[in-house]
Amino acid sequence: MSINKSDLPYRPNVGAMLFNARGEVLMARRTDMPGAGGPVTEGVWQCPQGGIDDGETPRQAVMRELMEEIGTDHATIIGEYPQWISYDLPDHLIGKALGGRFRGQTQKWFALRFAGHDGDIRLDTHLPAEFDMWQWVPACDMSRLNVGFKRSIYDQVMQEFSRFAKPAGA
Q1: For a designed S-S bond to 43, which of 35, 122, 126, 148 qualifies (C-beta 3.0 to 4.6 A apart)?
Q2: Domains in the chain with CATH codes
Q3: Statement: residue 170 has pLDDT above 70
Q4: How far from each other are the two terminal CA atoms of the chain, in whole angstroms?
């Protein structure tokens, strides 16, 4: 039986573009994609993101996702993308990714300012770990990382959030 993508809904999701005090963005490497465990130049990188639970607001979900995925919610929301952004999964992932129940995701993106210390970021608090490595990346270098099929979303969100990609208070 073939799955018709247009029959599947979008999964409600949040994305967190976390900026440090220097205006760099936290990017983490996924454990479930080719290149995980290899050199820092390999793998698929992304910002923390995840589904919205029933009864949860997007703002609550983004803070929960930070805690689950990077082990800390020491952050303050400093911006919100004005619209929801939807994307379709590539055809080869339909029926496999996202539990096979969704055609893609509709995302509400937030800009957050990190208020903790690098030591607060822990990828081992959620098992299985979603990420195996993280780094602070200058916003202008995000496009050099492999973000897979989500590149256009990252470019779109960064256009809106570029004003946060400078040192805090500048």
Answers
A1: 35
A2: 9-35+42-164 (3.90.79.10)
A3: no
A4: 56
Q: CA angle at residue 100 from 94 to 101, to 5 degrees? A: 110
pTM score above 0.90: yes
pLDDT reported for residue 144: 85
Q: Is 117 helix (H, G, I), strand (E, B) or coil?
A: coil
User: Concatenated DSSP letters for 24-90?
Assistant: -EEEEEETTSTTTTS-TTSS-EE--EEEPPTT--HHHHHHHHHHHHHS---EEEEEE-SS-EEEEPP
- Say how far apart CA 90 and CA 80 lie, in whole Å: 26
Name every residue whose Cβ is closer than 8 Å to that of residue 28 and which is 6 or more positions away in sequence.
45, 46, 47, 48, 69, 70, 123, 130, 131, 133, 134, 135
For 75-102, what is the HEC assignment?
A: EEEEEECCCCEEEECCHHHCCCHHHHCC
Of all residues in the chain, the percent with pLDDT exceeding 70 is 98
- Name the token pair of 80: 């919100």
Q: Choose among 44, 47, 56: nearest CA to 27.
A: 47
Radius of gyration of the chain (CA): 16
